[in-house]
Amino acid sequence: MMKFNIKFSLLFFCFSVCYSVLAQEINYERKALGKITHPKLGEISGIIPSVKYPHCFWVHNDSGDDAVIYLIDTLSNLMCQFKLENIEAVDMEDIAWLTIENKPYLLLADIGNNRRDREILSFYLFEEPDFSGSQTVSTIAKSSIKEIEIRYSDKRRDAEAIFVDPLDNRVYIISKRDLRVNVFDFKIPALTDHILTLETRLTLPYTFVTAADISRDGRYILIKTLTHVYQWSRNSGVSILETLRTSPQVIPYQAEPQGEAISFDVNNCDFYTISERPFGLDSYLYKYKKK
């Protein structure tokens, strides 16, 4: 097993380096905004800027936590936590934003499947909650949460990366552990309340994809692996799948302890990353500002 892991790691490293050499590089400057210190924020796996509250972010943990989202500021201070009422979290892996009837919504993805023991996976859709400075704990009512269940048509998969196209509210999922990752999609609102069976729409020459996001104007897409960040530019009238078929630009990325979250800034240009804190290692909210 150890020999296999070493061989796979070397293959993954060589594959990533070779592909990054082919991609055109663009430069960003990284700045640490705030250190994660609150004990409740030990396994952050997703981040998205708040629409209602400028200079704040929604984050969540993965399999080590309940169905809770946390509001933090740019210094990584915890402002409030919101529990999803009567929702049992298994492995929350990413969070995305979208707009429905001119209202900001959040989409929380319970799609982690490390052991591939789950056939049915869940998304939770709800309006971005209201926050007052006096509250530190609140609840999102079960009645205001829409659950969307999915399965993959061919086999059980693990995934950690989603984003929602702001032009048509189509959700894109990128698998994690395939040697060439698969892209799946579905539309919000879903046409049925039954379980959605998703087909592969596209394969990409990456592996171990841990996060993704799209800019609020829909023009730029980020995909993050363990070792690299890639960016695609989308032309007017071009679909997401057509855009992902083109060659991306590579963004120099300094590896984090366990970086599983990425998000565009509201300016559609800069972006943020944040990491889990494995073994008590330090973790920061980083801003990547385009030079």
TrEMBL record:
<protein>
    <recommendedName>
        <fullName>PE-PGRS family protein</fullName>
    </recommendedName>
</protein>
<keyword id="KW-0732">Signal</keyword>
<feature type="signal peptide">
    <location>
        <begin position="1"/>
        <end position="23"/>
    </location>
</feature>
